[in-house]
Write a structure and sequence with these properties.
The complex is a heterodimer of chains A (198) and B (100). With 198 residues, chain A is an all-alpha fold. Chain A has 12 helices and no strands. In chain A, helix 9 packs across helix 12. The longest helix of chain A has 25 residues. The radius of gyration of chain A is 19 Å and the shape is elongated. The N terminus of chain A is likely disordered. Chain B is mainly α and 100 residues long. Chain B is 61% helix and 0% strand. Chain B is elongated and about 65 Å long. Classes of the chains: A mainly alpha (198), B mainly alpha (100).
Chain lengths: 198, 100
């Protein structure tokens, strides 16, 4: 069932039908391509992305009175989409649950951490990579890591906005981002090696 | 009190021993580098970063920052951005009519 807790925490606005449609068209629809790309990158499936997108916009309109006109519509929509993915889509599709942070923490508490942080990945190797390689490296990350990279690097959300979208503290956003980037760098390094860069 | 994940980050955020003799950038914090990479550093933080990084050409902090910027750049420039199919837009508009 769709969780509306995040919608209930805010004061409801009251809009006329005309205002609802205007807000939907002028504030929600301009973000539809970004939303679709986000949905596609977290589901990794075109049909699922379409379903998730439709579901998100349906909920956005249904609960539009929780949205305050003139505030950050894009972040609001991304939050609905993310919640929809976690609450419904991931369960329905029997995707693996949240990543096991214990494994990650064990790794990051090990002596290998500094090695990763300063790994020798040449910038010129990165420049020669093609989109598919970059895409594969990103898609290979666990979805929770993929999400923070998408939100920050592709969609340009601030740490504070990401914190609200993901319902986690800013410190956690930043640590997850740090870990995600280290993992992505390792993936890209593997590709760079396969391309002959040393 | 921050949660464990955040604390782990803080624990790992100081880049120790950059390896360059005389380098005074040991105190550069990874969170400062991260803010620079993400364009979220304020003026004071940017100034501090530049002061430290300018003094250490071979510093691993600098290498790290350059790598991160390059990765961010390829993510932004080499990944396809799809346009939502028109039939999906139509379905969305049809679905909201049903709500009314």
């Amino acid at each position: 069932m769709f969780s509306i807790f995040f919608l209930m925490e805010e004061v409801q606005s009251s809009y006329t039908e005309e205002q609802k449609h205007r807000i939907f068209e002028s504030e929600f629809m301009p973000h539809i391509d970004a939303m679709y790309n986000f949905a596609y990158r977290i589901t990794y499936d075109e049909d699922s992305a379409k379903d998730l997108l439709q579901d998100t916009y349906y909920k956005a309109f249904k609960y539009i009175e929780s949205f305050h006109e003139g505030t950050n519509a894009k972040a609001w929509l991304f939050r609905i989409l993310k919640n929809g993915f976690i609450n419904e889509f991931r369960k329905k599709n029997k995707e693996p649950s949240m990543i096991d942070y214990k494994d990650v923490e064990t790794y990051y508490n090990s002596d290998d951490v500094n090695e990763v942080m300063t790994s020798d990945l040449r910038v010129d190797a990165l420049k020669d990579m093609i989109g598919d390689e970059v895409s594969n490296a990103l898609n290979a990350l666990a979805v929770d890591f993929r999400i923070v990279i998408i939100l920050c690097d592709l969609e340009g959300f601030t740490y504070e906005e990401m914190s609200k979208i993901l319902d986690i503290p800013i410190g956690t956003v930043r640590s997850r981002l740090h870990r995600a980037r280290n993992l992505l760098r390792e993936r890209l390094k593997t590709y760079a090696k396969s391309m002959g860069f040393k | 009190m921050k949660d464990k994940e955040a604390q782990d980050y803080l624990d790992s955020c100081i880049i120790n021993q950059c390896g360059t003799p005389g380098c005074d950038s040991h105190g550069v914090k990874l969170d400062l580098v991260q803010k620079i990479i993400d364009g979220q550093a304020n003026e004071e933080e940017s100034k501090l970063y530049n002061e430290i990084i300018d003094g250490c050409i071979n510093c691993k902090c600098r290498q790290y920052c350059e790598q991160e910027l390059a990765i961010k750049n390829i993510l932004q420039t080499k990944l396809d951005r799809k346009r939502v199919p028109l039939d999906v837009v139509e379905k969305i508009k049809t679905s909201i009519i049903k709500i009314i």
